[in-house]
Amino acid sequence: MKRRDFLALLSTGIAWSTMSHAQQTGKVARIAYLGPTLTSRADGLQRLVDRLREFGWEEGRNLDVDEREYGSDLQIVASAAADFLRNKVDVIVVISTAVAQVVQSVTRTIPIVVVIGSDPVGIGAAASLARPGGMITGLTIMSPEMLVKRAEKLAQILPNASRIAILYSPNTRGASHLLEIVLSAVTTLRRTPRAFPAGTDDAIEPAFDAIMQWPADGVIVQDDPMLFVARTKVADAALARKLPLACPFREMAQAGCLFSYSASLRERFERSAVYVDKILRGANPAELPFEQPAKFEFVINLITAKALDIKIPNFLSATADAVIE
After folding, report:
1. Of 33, 11, 1, 27, whose CA–CA distance to 278 is shortest?
2. What's the whole-model pTM score?
3. E strands, the chain, where?
4. Concatenated DSSP letters for 156-180?
5. What span, in angstroms and rounded, lies between the C-alpha atoms of 44 and 316?
6. Which of 135, 133, 76, 137 lies closest to 110 in space, CA to CA?
7. Cβ neighbours of residue 301 under 8 Å, at least 6 residues apart?
8. Contact, 253 vs 324, CB < 8 A?
């Protein structure tokens, strides 16, 4: 056995021994979850908790979960993080890297696991995917690549479209970085892009009014916690104006977007339990690589397509992972 392998095995044995001792002495691990409203526990946090049970962590026995929600106003994120710090939780689980950075501005001592990191390196939340180098780690959904894919699929569905709007929240850290990527992608497709900000849910209707005045032929919704929380309002505003939406997640297609394309949010929650377990057993988050998804979901809402009088090309329907009808 090589010395490096022996040391790794020894380290693992020590971590397991330490955890076994902690469980025998009645130590309870404390994790905090900070997620957006309108994400059911069954589709999100519960999946993480169920997977943790497979690793030996069970609510009411050796695991305590502090669950908090935020709406379109992310101000609650900082105050919740301060509560977590006072309560001395062991790990904080958040949805996005943008939220993780807000939490990190409050505490740099508690490990943070991200469920769907948009672009942790690009927005400065990690030094690299292989070695994050700080207290933030977890899973990435490769948002830059996904934005490009959504732009391409929207162009395939709307071959005669000339103007594509991008709806984004200027209040989210890293928004400008992702915005540059999608603007470039739309330009490469020989369409004219224009960005429209909506920093709060009250700004959604005015943003769509401005989009209509331009006017746009379709809209790409940027990955963003606020826009995800307000997904029903976003979808309703677009449908009222007969605008097709290209969105990030299945839940947004279910709310009324024309289609969504991204990694599965539910699957990401299950995978995040692996990170929580490793950290609870002593792993250093700075050395836990961000995990990239191996599979992506393409979901088409045919109800919305019919309402907008849009025919989805057969080759796209055939490749969809799910069709809402």
Report:
1. 11
2. 0.82
3. 29-36, 63-70, 91-94, 112-117, 136-140, 163-168, 192-197, 218-221, 245-247, 259-262, 297-301, 322-324
4. HH-TT--EEEEEE-TTSTTHHHHHH
5. 28
6. 135
7. 253, 254, 256, 257, 258, 259, 324
8. yes
Query: Which uninterrupted H or E stretch holds 21?
Result: helix 3-24
DSSP code, position 287: G
Query: Shortest CA distance to 248 belongs to which of 169, 132, 158?
Result: 169
pLDDT in tens, 100-154: 988 999 998 999 999 988 788 888 889 999 999 999 999 988 778 888 999 999 9
Token duo for residue 270: 């299950």
Q: Count of CB atoms within 10 A of residue 84's CB?
A: 25
pLDDT per position as a tens digit, 156-169 = 999 999 999 999 99
Q: Is the peptide bond before 293 cis (omega within 30 degrees of 0)?
A: no
Residue 120 and residue 61 in contact, taking contact as beta carbons nearer than 8 Å: no
Angle between helices 204-213 and 231-240 (to 10 degrees): 30
